[in-house]
Automatic annotation (TrEMBL):
A Pfam family the protein falls into: LPG_synthase_TM
Topology versus the membrane: Multi-pass membrane protein
The protein's name in its UniProt record: YbhN family protein
Keyword tags: Cell membrane, Membrane, Transmembrane, Transmembrane helix
Residue ranges of the TM segments: 7-29, 41-60, 119-145, 157-176, 232-255, 261-279, 291-313, 319-338
InterPro entries xref list: L-PG_synthase/AglD (IPR022791)
Organism whose genome encodes this protein: Natribaculum luteum
GO cellular component: plasma membrane
Top-level taxonomy: Archaea, Methanobacteriati, Methanobacteriota, Stenosarchaea group, Halobacteria
Family: Belongs to the UPF0104 family.
NCBIfam families membership: flippase-like domain (TIGR00374)
Length: 340
């Protein structure tokens, strides 16, 4: 890990701690601890089991997406690879930027797939997760609005989610529309810079040719996934199953504290709260917890310390358990999160 990576990780960790300090000061740290001490161990354990089911569902997504690209990975290895990707997401700022390249490297190590093929596989999983999440938000918020007045905070959160997803989709469509231009011009534009970084070890022309070939295969692979309707449907279906497991896990975390929450609420709170993962914090740590509390307190009517305790149990299962599993799989597969 180089100095720049250490500084980024340190700054992100300090930022996460600062967010937690502010959160605990606002809701009352002592009352949060008191709520946690009342949790039923059996239901806390059930929350972790449900989180494990979510991890299994989304690792099957990755396996299915790779199958559409002609890459066959046993279920056990696909689980370890996806857990490693989640680990990378959770320990690097701006999560997905760290997780996808690491997952692609893991895929190339456990199979004969090229790096760009693995990158398309994991990117397909992330993109397909958007479809069920925004659908769940729109459907559940619409239903919630028929029974309860939608507050300004929730309106702003939904508006931000729709705007962000619209921007991402627009960028993806533009990249796909102008893929030929990108393949033709991008390699020549960056080859000289890459050659200078390599201190003359590689010629700009060979770098340009290599980049063009890799970009061409990258877009071809995207086309394979997009046109395999059977597997694409399966991927989206598994994504929905994963979101539902997360929702049930949060409901179970509240049940562990003796409270019940409307399933409709958690169906839109989880995707909306995860938008805070775009913050420059390790895996959105701190920011996502604060977003969950901000959304759940007004929509459930439950006291903030209890909500915070439930969120901490839920995030312990969704965030910290995959960190432990993924860190172990990364070590077993011999891949470092940050190169030197």
């Amino acid at each position: 890990m180089n100095g720049r990576s250490r500084r980024a990780l340190l700054i992100g960790a300090v930022g996460a701690i600062a967010v937690f300090v502010v959160l605990f000061v606002l809701v009352g740290a002592r009352r949060v601890v008191e709520s946690l001490l009342t949790a039923r161990p059996s239901l806390v354990a059930a929350t972790f089991v449900l989180a494990l089911c979510w991890l299994v569902a989304w690792s099957l997504m990755l396996r299915t997406a790779l199958a559409a690209l002609g890459v066959d990975i046993p279920f056990g290895k696909s689980f370890l690879v996806y857990a490693g990707a989640v680990f990378a997401n959770n320990v690097t700022p701006f999560g997905q930027a760290g997780g996808e390249p690491i997952a692609a490297l893991l895929i190339s190590k456990v199979s004969d797939a090229r790096y760009e093929t693995g990158l398309v596989g994991i990117a397909s999983v992330d993109v397909c997760n958007v479809v069920p999440s925004i659908s769940l938000v729109l459907i559940s918020v619409s239903y919630y609005a028929t029974t309860t007045t939608v507050g300004e905070r929730l309106e702003d959160a939904v508006g931000a989610a729709v705007a962000l997803i619209a921007v991402v989709v627009a960028i993806m469509l533009l990249v796909w529309r102008f893929q030929n231009v990108i393949v033709d011009r991008l390699p020549s534009a960056v080859s000289g810079f890459v050659a200078r970084l390599g201190r003359g070890q590689f010629s700009p022309r060979s770098i340009e040719r290599n980049l063009a070939e890799r970009l061409g295969r990258f877009f071809d692979n995207i086309g394979h996934v997009a046109t395999d309707r059977k597997r694409l449907t399966a991927v989206i279906g598994l994504s929905l199953v994963g979101w539902l497991f997360q929702s049930i896990a949060l409901l179970t975390a509240f049940a562990a504290l003796g409270h019940s929450v409307s399933p409709v609420v958690v169906l839109f709170v989880i995707p909306l709260g995860n938008l805070a993962g775009a913050a420059p914090l390790p895996g959105g740590l701190g920011g996502i917890e604060a977003a969950f509390v901000a959304l759940l307190v007004p929509t459930t009517g439950i006291a903030a310390p209890v909500v915070t305790a439930a969120v901490l149990i839920f995030r312990g299962a969704i965030y910290w358990m995959p960190v432990l599993i993924g860190g172990g799989s990364m070590a077993a597969l011999g891949v470092r999160v940050v190169s030197r």
